[in-house]
Amino acid sequence: MTERKAYTVTLSDGRTLSVMEAGNERDLAVIVHNGTPSGAGLLTENIEDAAALGLRLISYARPGYQASTRQPGRSVADAAKDTAELADLLSIERFATWGISGGGPHALACAALLPDRVVAAASLAGVAPYDAEGLDFMAGMGEDNIAEFGAALEGEKTLADYLSTQVPALLASTPAEMAAHMNSLLGGPDKAVFTDAFGAEMAGLMQQAIADGIYGWLDDDLAFTKPWGFDAAQIRVPLQIWQGTQDLMVPCSHGQWLAQHIPQADIHISDTDGHLTLYRTRVPEVHRWMKAHF
Fold first, then answer.
1. Disulfide: which of 17, 53, 124, 141 matches 242 by Cβ 3.0-4.6 Å?
2. Nearest to 92 by CA among 9, 13, 216, 209
3. Structural domain containing residue 19
């Protein structure tokens, strides 16, 4: 198995980013934006698939997660700046990027704002903008996400209080206990993937992200519920959108809205997928599609 390398980098404004990568430095670079809450992490199955294709996976923790310096008030668009500077520090000129769940909007930001550097992008189970015209943002979400985003809309203090009540249970959970805690957000396909090593890695990514505090999670949620800082319709680079109809975290309507407003997007609606299953079932397809665009 290709080894993971974890390290930190310092940006031009003095902030630190936690980074994890796997693959050969000569390989084609793919920058991964993980979900919410999650830091710099790569799943074994994704690493092995990428290595077989000659792809180098790079993931970083958004501000507030792990050792990444918090950036209060950050927007989704700010991820494009951090991604570009990270690529510069790693001497990467052109790269592909995908994001899943809360990482989806951040991958879209890179596609929209870095068109000369992003060869292809993908959003898997990613949310649409909160203020999207014609979209009922929370329709179809599980109860826990309705409560979480409701708290975010009330402001930072309310959201901080809410997230602080969630962290102890998540940190103390086995994968099975975490699945039970997240019951309202997991349909049948997603519950199934929490039963093996894949589920244990997923749980570990979440626990690692919140072990040192709630602020990465909090700032993600606040960023999702305010203007993103770019218009998704301006995306011109090759783009895939993946959404599962059994997703209770980010309902399928979000992917459908994105597809309608980014006309050139290659849209994939899967009746067999939920939310977490896209990590396992669709990332290999995304990797093959991306490689063809380099």
1. 124
2. 9
3. 4-291
